Amino acid sequence: MMFSSISLTGKLHAGLEELQARASTWWVMLQISIQERFVYRGDFVLGTLMRFLPIVTQIFLWGAIFHANARETIAGYTYHNFVAYYLLTMVSRAFSSMPGLASGIARQVREGEVKKYLIQPVDMITVLLLARVAHKLVYYFVAALPFAAVFYICRHYFPGWPDPEVMAAYILSLILAFLLGFFLEATLGLISFWFLEVTSLLFVYMLFNFFFSGHMFPLDMLPEPWLTLVNFLPLKYLAYFPAAVFLGKVQGGELVMGLSVQAGWVVFFIILCRWTYARGIDQYSAYGG
Amino acid sequence: MAVIEVRNLSKTYRVYQKSEGLWAAFRGLFRRRWREVHAVRGISFEVEQGEFVAFLGPNGAGKTTTLKLLSGVITPTSGEARVLGHVPWRRENAYRRRFALVMGQKNQLWWDLPALESFRLHQHIYRIPPGEYERTRDELAEMLGVRELLGRPVRELSLGERMKMELMAALLHKPEVLFLDEPTIGLDVVAQHTIQNFLREYQRQRRLTILLTSHYMKDVAALCQRVIVIAQGRIVHDGSLEGIVERFGRSKILTVQLADGQSSRDFHRYGKVVECQPPRVKLRVPRQGVPELVAAILQNHAVEDVSVEDPPLEEVIAEMFSCVQQQTSQESPSPVSTSSA
């Protein structure tokens, strides 16, 4: 009995040490990734600011549509609702979009850089995830001020600050959107273990993403059967869902359900991503190398 | 006990075979032709701790494939291998912390950051205690003469400097086995020399086991006591470099210094005249008949001096490759076979 409790404490201790060693590796990886992002800061700042341009055109476009139709609401949305919605999807996408992730994986596979992850005691998905966290952190650092300015200028379009609980749910939905976006696109990138070129696949994905994530228009505008279809897809959790949470469109039991389904999709894509990676490595080491 | 044990190791790739022309490309969409490439065919060898072994062979002979198998990048089609008691392609972290692979044509460092940052990451990945890390890093930087370059972004370094950094990164965790795939490729003579000296010195100090592939015979001659020659996926020689010359060198170079006024015209009857600058004649002669030839020359000409040498190593190796290629193609007509699917 005593022996087993000693061995259990020993195991626990070893486990804690292992976790600590990993955490310190992740921390250094994150630091180095952040440093790397800052190398091309000029290009980065310009790229960040340019991302605000599409939203401006969209605001003007819907302004013109409302003006031409002389209507108060379209599909239950007022002009103000539209502007608020677009600004919020922009925030969602600041979390869920993963520029260069899938194509970067494809390039690493094509050029044999993945060998590094077979030889060194380091996991590719973890490295990519930390690099992406670094990418996002630097992006928020640069974009925080312009975002704040735009939201301040457009504050009249919003119904007001949501309750603390809704705010907490919103932040959770954004973090889940980040994880979902990461594992979904990483899985797509890993397909390059079988087909070296995944550009066309990514193009199709981006197209679907554009329409069915809610990036183009609020998804609750969609008629049936499209509405049911998007509810069965994970894409709506990348842009529409967090925005809908903030705007108070999803509440109570529906909110809990929505967050659970979003978390379910995250788990599904983590497993799929891991599985694809393991199979991809098998494929790579059997045929390529 | 051997550090590396390899038994009947084989690796066969199946590659898609493209035929020429538009119609063939269209047909290929529906019916693919595959070609089997036997990169490594049943090789066996052992390497003891502290040996510095070179792999020689023409392009496509299976050298890099062997290194990839031993470092666990690829899984074999059949056969066994153990390095430091581990099966490489199981890719256990316990194994991965004990070896390193450096590929001359691949860059493992963070391109936009100083090498020091990559080293810091290696410290954590390989779990090197801080004090030990700093000691090893400074010692390696000193030996390679790159101390003042550690803080400069890798992209600003020359190829030779970068290679030194790659070596440093690979050695920080003090691997017991080091695989080097063409570490001096594309480097100038000075950089080649520095890296050779470093490797020799480091290997002597640490007694680590190194497997090296290189096309530069100078690397091999300067560093390795033992040479394994691979051709078309098979080991054709395993022994010393001198052994290669004895076994595969078919000719010798005979230099004859003639006495004043002697004609060098009819020397071609003794062998192939390589150089003729009277009174000196250089001949390439078959290895077996050297004593008889020398006797004949001494008898027929007034000679001041005769010397017999082996041809340059590169030449012997080239001769050996072609000889081996002929042999293996006679034994098994084709190293590749084709199938449809």
How is this structure best described in words?
The complex is a heterodimer of chains A (289) and B (341). With 289 residues, chain A is mostly helical. Chain A has one domain. Chain A has twelve helices and two strands. In chain A, a hairpin with a 2-residue loop joins strand 1 and strand 2 (77-78). In chain A, helix 2 crosses helix 7 (124-153). The longest helix of chain A is centred in the first third of the chain and has 38 residues, at 2-39. The relative contact order of chain A is 0.11. Helix content of chain B is 35%, strand content 30%. Chain B has helices at residues 22-28, 63-70, 93-96, 115-125, 130-144, 159-171, 189-206, 217-223, 241-248, 290-300, 313-331, and strands spanning 2-17, 33-48, 52-56, 78-83, 99-103, 177-181, 209-213, 226-231, 234-239, 251-258, 272-277, 280-286, 303-309, 336-340. A six-stranded mixed sheet of chain B has the order 5-6-7-3-8-9, sandwiched between helices. In chain B, strands 4-1-2-14 form a four-stranded antiparallel sheet. In chain B, strands 11-12-10-13 form a four-stranded antiparallel sheet, covered by helices on one side. In chain B, strand 6 (177-181), helix 7 and strand 7 form a beta-alpha-beta unit. Classes of the chains: A mainly alpha (289), B alpha/beta (341). The A-B interface holds A 21, 24-25, 28-29, 32, 35-36, 39-40, 112-113, 115-116, 118-122, 282, 285-289 and B 13-14, 65, 68, 71-75, 89, 91, 93, 96-97, 100-101, 103, 106, 108, 110, 112-113, 117-118, 120-121, 123-127, 153.
